[in-house]
Automatic annotation (TrEMBL):
Ranges for domain Glycosyltransferase subfamily 4-like N-terminal: 20-173
Organism of provenance: Undibacterium terreum
A single MF term (Gene Ontology): glycosyltransferase activity
Pfam families attached to this UniProt entry: Glyco_transf_4, Glycos_transf_1
Domain (Glycosyl transferase family) ranges: 184-356
Protein name: Glycoside hydrolase
PANTHER family: SULFOQUINOVOSYL TRANSFERASE SQD2
Domain of life: Bacteria
Keywords linked to the UniProt accession: Hydrolase
UniProt KW Hydrolase keyword: yes
InterPro entries noted in UniProt: Glyco_trans_1 (IPR001296), Glyco_trans_4-like_N (IPR028098), Glycosyltransferase_grp1 (IPR050194)
Amino acid sequence: MALADQPRILLVTRNLPPLIGGMEKLNHHIFLELGKRYAMAVAGPEGCASYLNAEAATVATFPTAPKSAFVMGSIRAAWQMGMSFRPDLILCGSGATAPAGFLIARRLGIPLITYLHGLDIVTSHVLYKSIFLPAIRASTTLITNSSNTARLALAHSIDARRLHILHPGVEMDVPEDIEPAAFRQAIEAGDRPILLSVGRLTERKGLYQFIVNCMPDLVRQQPDILLLIVGGEATDALSAKQGIGIQLTETIQQMNLASHVKLLGRIDDARLSQAYSASQLLLFPVLDLPGDVEGFGMVAVEAAAHGLPTVGFAAGGVPDAIAEGVSGYLVPPNDYQQMSKTILRYLSGESQISKDSCKQFANAFSWASFGEKLSNIVSPLLKPNDLLPITEHP
């Protein structure tokens, strides 16, 4: 069957390039993977069309800020594309676009899928709870990015019969000519053991607490240790505390850790691959905050794809992204003493995880596998079918 004769899917999401982050990468791959099987259209953020290689007639855009312009713009764009493209199914990339997806799905009498992340459930804003959560609950099918997000969804009265767990994917085609030695030379790291943190600078990532509670002890016992922090402020997020970078810089200076902690800011994918390959451990000391939760932990799987293990707190959806003793180590939340001990044991060689073990774990999360599992969720909705019970797609 020609692609033009295939069922039509409209992806409605705020999270696409040119915005940067794990959710943006996820939604981009949702578009790419479903596009192999179905005819696709998008209602997405301004500037996304050039990243999608899609026909202009199948993309409608909206502003991402301020919040009021985003909400109204997403509804207009979804309605415009829905009425012109006439999809057979709507897929919302997060709860933030669920109202827009719900309105056009109801108008056309077609199924609605919403992909849920941790913040889609725990956000406490009154208007969100009164407008967005009802639209989420009205979805024909819901996908969560981790088992923890699924538990949160069930606790917020979302029907288990409509729920699937599908973890985000990872790029397994790691370049062979990464040259980690060149990266070390560029940052003047020499042979020092490198701890790496990757992600947007948000309070939830727990870097301030890690520096305060762990770095002094790590430096005492491993005087040449170096922490590299990759990522910038979450300026594109709908709600995120700003100024984390300034707070970290001031704390590093006050604690005389400038020779042990470096903030690299945002770097491109090629240099990030170098950073993964040049490091000894990825750190993921995330916090469970009121109204904020780590939905999954894609960077831990990305690190594993490069053969790099992760030490992280077992908070939020992180346990789905780290296999104990296989791709890293899980530490009880907020146990900084155990976090330091685990890092030092690994650096000393007392405990080891092989690169092959990490890569084998990551392979189960390949984007190709993700696409197959997502298609298995989508396809029953494109023909009459009973609701399926909650299903995990590891």
